[in-house]
Specification:
By secondary structure, the chain is an alpha/beta fold. Helix content is about 40%, strand content about 15%. It starts with 5 loop residues before the first helix and ends with a helix.
């Protein structure tokens, strides 16, 4: 390999520019000319920067030889022109490095950059998002040897009906063992939970997983939820929201202070602003603090379901009667009636929800009935039949 000089380039411009062995050094990294040429074209012909995603696609298509990966250029090699022309720096890199330092903007005006975890509406609109889950990658370095950080953006309609589910003690059988046993290959999940949430999802509801686990466990939590399986049925795909704090701060809030609802309420209220009125349809949890969190974001008491370590589910309005995930699955069409796709049809479903079988048969509505509207007293035989119906159909009544 030889360094290309201006004299040699002018002597053989066609042969050298089309050579597959031509490489360029930029800020300490060496790239093939096939990777840098499109960036130069973007800067010179269109006055813009080539997106980092396209740049990394070119890196994958034209990888460098192994002996050049991570190699630094000679000290005398000048790459200032290449740096200015490429314009591969993204604002995300400036945010990582620059903090609140002023940057030169258009017309000489100073432009201040601020670190943030929330993308602007313009940035979200510029992304080619599709309904459902969209995988995104964050490139923290331009070097091909650095692995990107992956995440997901879920695109839902503004009138979507969201079902919240806790993880530890709700999907897992217990809090402590739910952390440990999956690491050694034991699923340790509640019986029937994949089938129930899968049916809920197929009826048109979106499932949101909310846990007080620290953000450092988000990868293991996602991997666990993806691997929960029973009779060939997996948990439905949905966003996994964890605490943004570290391990010790999260443990202090949940074990010492015993106030995990503080994080959950704040998180759910921020999510509530993204949707229309009352987007959260139901909530599954295993502690009274879960019920407090769900009630704070207008989840009806009749659809706050608490599960104990024995797999028994009770409702906040009637804790004397218990059922299970399998028993609840038999009544899933009553508690979670089918929601049609499309905004107009979904809005129509919202208007007619007050007249659903679930709300018609629940006890609070009957208790508020005016005396003049009350039905005639049943005979003794009819009364006994109704009592049996109330006992066996509790989930349709609450």
């Amino acid at each position: 390999q030889q360094r290309l000089s201006m004299k040699k380039l002018l002597a053989y411009p066609g042969d050298l520019s089309g050579s597959p062995d031509l490489c360029v050094s930029v800020r300490g990294s060496i790239y093939r000319w096939q990777v840098l040429a499109p960036a130069l074209m973007c800067a010179l012909c269109f006055g813009g920067n080539m997106p980092l995603q396209a740049h990394h696609q070119l890196l994958e298509a034209f990888p460098m030889d192994r002996r050049f990966q991570g190699q630094k250029p000679d000290a005398g090699l000048d790459d200032e022109d290449g740096t200015d022309l490429l314009g591969l720096e993204d604002t995300s890199e400036e945010l990582l490095e620059g903090g609140n330092e002023p940057k030169a903007g258009k017309n000489g005006a100073k432009k201040y950059l601020r670190k943030t975890l929330v993308p602007s509406p313009e940035q979200l609109r510029s992304l080619p998002l599709r309904p459902g889950a969209n995988t995104i990658r964050f490139y923290l370095s331009l070097k091909a040897s650095v692995e990107p950080v992956t995440a997901s953006i879920f695109l839902w309609t503004s009138n979507a009906r969201v079902v919240i589910s806790d993880v530890d003690g709700t999907i897992t059988k217990s809090d402590a063992l739910g952390h440990l046993l999956p690491r050694v290959g034991i699923q340790w999940a509640q019986k029937g939970v994949p089938q129930l949430l899968d049916r809920v999802n197929k009826n048109g509801y979106r499932v949101l997983y909310l846990t007080a686990r620290p953000i450092g466990q988000v990868d293991t939590t996602k991997a666990y939820l993806q691997n929960v399986k029973e009779d060939g049925v997996h948990l439905p795909l949905g966003p996994v929201i964890t605490s943004p704090d570290g391990l010790f701060k999260s443990l202090n809030r949940e074990i010492v202070q015993r106030k995990p609802e503080e994080f959950k309420i704040e998180c759910l209220k921020n999510l509530q602003k993204l949707f229309g009125p009352k987007p959260f349809y139901a909530g599954f949890g295993n502690k009274p603090t879960d019920a407090v969190s769900y009630r704070a974001v207008d989840v009806p008491d009749s659809r706050i379901l608490i599960i104990n370590p024995h797999g028994e589910i009770h409702n906040e309005l009637n804790q004397a009667y218990t059922t299970s995930y399998d028993g609840l699955r038999e009544l899933v069409d009553l508690m979670f009636p089918f929601v049609k796709a499309g905004t107009e049809e979904a809005e129509e479903d919202d208007k007619t929800e007050d007249f659903s079988m679930h709300n018609f048969w629940k006890l609070p509505g009957l208790a508020q009935m005016e005396p003049s509207q009350a039905p005639p007293s049943p005979t003794k035989k009819e009364s006994s039949d109704n009592d049996v119906g109330l006992q066996t159909g509790w989930w349709a009544l609450v």
